[in-house]
Design a protein that fits this description.
Length: about 130
């Protein structure tokens, strides 16, 4: 899912959720950081996982020194979970790791009906684009 700033229309970043593993990953461009959009981004990712993909839990990993990531995740009620304290990156480097997860609130899933539906055209999308930044 792409995030767009509503104040100037610039692309702000992206968030994705792996449907099979429930793993969320997201980033913001430097110009979009530090104004609360990280929280909005991860909230949108959690909603994507729960209500469009039907996942009961969405997980997110981050490096311990990444306080912005930890803060944005905590702001959307991701809670710490036990996991390996080390993570191997695609290039083979080992880094410290923390893991957190978000549990779906009791609400029925809302799967996309497909191309042309209200959901797929963004009319009901919950994303930073609709956050009013
Ligand atoms: C992670 C990321 C999306 C967070 O977005 P952000 O815009 O920087 O964060 P926000 O402005 O939404 O801040 C979220 C919370 O973290 C806090 N925070 C942000 N930066 C912080 C820092 N450097 N130190 C401590 N707290 C920090 C904020 O105060 C806020 O807390 P609050 O809601 O209690 O006020 C963004 O920094 C980013 O894209 N980083 C690079 C890629 C990355 O690390 N992705 C995550 C991989 S899982």
């Amino acid at each position: 899912m792409v995030a767009v700033r509503t104040d100037d229309g610039r692309y702000a970043g992206s968030v994705s959720v792996l449907a099979d593993m429930g793993e969320m990953d997201g980033w913001l461009a430097p110009h979009a950081r530090g104004v609360g959009l990280g929280t909005e981004l991860f909230r949108a990712g959690a909603e994507l996982g729960h209500f469009h993909l039907g996942l009961p839990t969405v997980r997110a990993g981050f490096e311990p020194a990444n306080l912005a990531s930890a803060g944005a995740l905590a702001g959307v009620s991701f809670v710490p979970v036990d996991a390996s304290p080390r993570h191997t990156l695609d290039d083979g480097r080992e880094v410290g790791a923390r893991s957190s997860q978000h549990t779906a609130p009791r609400r029925p899933p809302c799967r996309c009906a497909g191309p042309g539906s209200a959901a797929s055209t963004g009319e009901s999308a919950s994303s930073p684009a609709a956050a009013g930044v």
